[in-house]
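Agenda item 2: dihydroflavine-adenine dinucleotide complex prediction
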Amino acid sequence: MPNRALLALARSDRARELALELPATRAVVRRFVPGEARADAVQVAAGLVAEGLRVTLDFLGEDTIERRHAHRVEAEYASLLGELARRGLARSAEVSVKLTALGLRLPGGEEIATAHARAICEAARTAGTTVTLDMEDHTVTSATLRVLRTLRAEFPETGGVLQAYLRRTPADCRMLAGPGSRIRLCKGAYDEPADVALRDRHEVDLAYVSCLRTLMAGEGHPMVATHDPRLVAIARHLAREQGRVTGDHEFQMLYGIRPGEQRRLAAAGETVRVYLPYGQEWWGYLTRRLAERPANLSFFVRSLLSS
Ligand code: FDA
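Presented output:
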């Protein structure tokens, strides 16, 4: 499971300030976040699309505590979607959105976040693409799934995320495997207590496979989000077993992680989507990537020593 001490840093302003003072931080951030500006992200997206990959763009940020910030996040997504349409990228590039960036944790947050998310879904539809709601920690799982259900009544193409490590996920998977659903299945990136989440890697992998079976046997569009080679192989096998064909499911990986495998899978005829984050609020995202893999941390430390 992800390193707990590192995940705790995700919410520390002090740690963020200290890290920002280190020149090496920038180099590490760039590995996972290709740019802070929208233009950088759209440029990188265009390059990936030209290589035959698809993209989901995430404007970084979470846990908004001011209403006007939630408005700014909505406005950024609207501009981004307009830009994707203008550049002819909307067929291959969609957006991923965190509801806490849209105000979910504010008082009355569910309504606030739903209103902002609805506006983003409208902008996506006008642009000719889709929205996926990222999944955050377990305190907002039920609210996120409720918002997803509300949005899907108007925008059935809206995607959601389920985390295999949550004990509730098998039931959510069964509920969301129906026609038209787009569900991204990931292992889960947050530090969750044992009463709500499995904490053993092997158990999480088994849960992932079991959820994959449900989604692949269902009538929706499963989005297999993992870099784990064994799970990718199992997903391909299950897709074949269920008579699935290219285009009715997809693989997703994060920008900067196993880029060779992303291209190999695409060359083998799979639909592959790269999750592409951008913006200045990269601290939480970066710490989760470092926590997932000790080798990333040693890369960070080596960069520090050589800077
Ligand atoms: P695992 O962590 O076991 O890694 C398998 C292998 O992949 C490693 O051995 C290594 O080779 C490589 N790898 C994995 N992580 C790496 C890293 N950080 N750096 C370098 N190599 C790495 N989570 C969540 O809670 N909510 C969400 O909405 C999303 N959304 C999402 C979208 C997409 C497209 C992906 C791929 C992942 C997410 N996640 C997520 C994150 C997910 O829950 C999980 O934390 C990471 O994907 C790592 O788990 P893996 O399945 O890759 O396996």
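Discussion summary: Residues 134-135, 161, 163, 184, 186-190, 225-228, 252-254, 257-258, 275, 289, 292-293, 296 surround dihydroflavine-adenine dinucleotide (CB under 6 Å).
Owner for follow-up: CH.
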